[in-house]
Amino acid sequence: MQIVDKYIDHVRGEAIRRPEKSWDKILLGFKANKWRMKLLPNKNISEGYHRLESMMMSLVADSLSREGSYVWGNIFAPCELMQCFGLNTLSIECLSCYMSGYHLEDYFIDYAQNMGIAPTLCSYHKTFVGGVESGVVQKPEYGVTTSLSCDGNLNTFRYLEKKANVPFTFLDVPYASDRESVAYLADQLRDLAGELEERTGRRFEEEKLKDILRTENETRRELKRFFEYQKIYYYPGELISHLYMMMGMHLLIGTKELLELLRFMNEEIQKGPVFRGKKILWIHLLPFYQESLKEYFNSSQEYQIIASDIILDYMDELDAEHPFEALAGKIIRNLYNGSYAHKAEMIGRLADELHPDAVIHFCHWGCKQASGGSILLKEKMQEKGIPMLILDGDGIDKRNSHDGQIKTRLEAFLEMIGTGGREAC
């Protein structure tokens, strides 16, 4: 690991001193990590989670290495439509996480703020903007974003269009899920397909999109089965495993690759021992770097995160025979669209299905919806008698998360649910 740490330090230094020369070294590190994962698997996690980690590393490394193979997006951009044109979707939130692997998030955030970006903006967005502004992160030819669910999406992509000359399509997502709203968004998706035809020179094939949605339906059914099994069986993973699953369900949904992986995971999990510890439903983002959280949840037989709402943000069947309307309905009816009261209601139903012993809600710095709505969710969980912990921190910027405070509150909460306490914290 000393070699890896030295390379990370070297790349960070290059990015700061000679940003124009650092990108190839960043990509080299991603490619090396891709092969390391394949050849030296993490023995502390299940084979399925190991394959998932390798799959997501390959997506990022291979896409960034091939010019014209990907578009920027946010995690709610319709990757299914981009797949019809042979394009991968790389969300700026996920790419920011990968940049943090080189310990560059603080430098990029400071760079963005020194350029005039507001300190209150989501730190994922500041990381990405700083990466582009500093000259480190190389740009694609195009981007796609939605108004779901972050206020910063449109402003960030507008800024990147102005500063980095990356044109983008903005999908305006209505709050209402009536027929008129679905038709409004479906028309925007048809326009996006036309734009992608012009940009790629490839003809849009509706039957291909239908086939992707059929695969997506199968994948979602397998995911439901997996989370049902996680209520019963021990399936070792790490905090970051759930981040990778979120990436897969938003960036690779509709691919045969992800479907086959989930089928494998459903076979593997049933061979494991019965889980006798406490089952946790995680809400919002996952601070994958947080030491105290890793200590308690990485490969733990006492506490198992059985699901995350950001992975299960849409779980209904899609009507593949009407693909644009189906995609529009999926985006509109996403758990993260609309008021937080709507989200609290949907998470309540999710809790009824998964029967968690406790809920942990992570309030990410800069996300006004999470901070402002957490009390509504707390009240919903109190109605159901499910203890809930609210943690404040930052999903990517370590300076905004105080590990000592998180550790103290987490330990008190876990001790409370261990003794059968039912009060929310």
Please, could you describe this protein's structure?
By secondary structure, this protein is an alpha/beta fold. The chain has one domain (2-418). 57% of the residues lie in helices and 10% in strands. It has 17 helices and eight strands. It has helices at residues 2-17, 19-39, 47-65, 79-83, 92-100, 105-114, 123-133, 152-164, 179-200, 206-230, 239-251, 256-269, 291-297, 323-332, 340-354, 368-384, 403-418, and strands at 70-73, 88-91, 143-146, 168-171, 278-283, 303-308, 358-364, 388-393. The strands form two sheets. The chain has a four-stranded parallel β-sheet, with helices on both faces. Helix 5 (92-100) crosses helix 7 (123-133) and helix 15 (340-354) crosses helix 16. The protein is globular and about 60 Å long. The two termini are 38 Å apart. The model has no long low-confidence stretch (mean pLDDT 93). Its cofactor is [4Fe-4S] cluster. It comes from Claveliimonas monacensis.
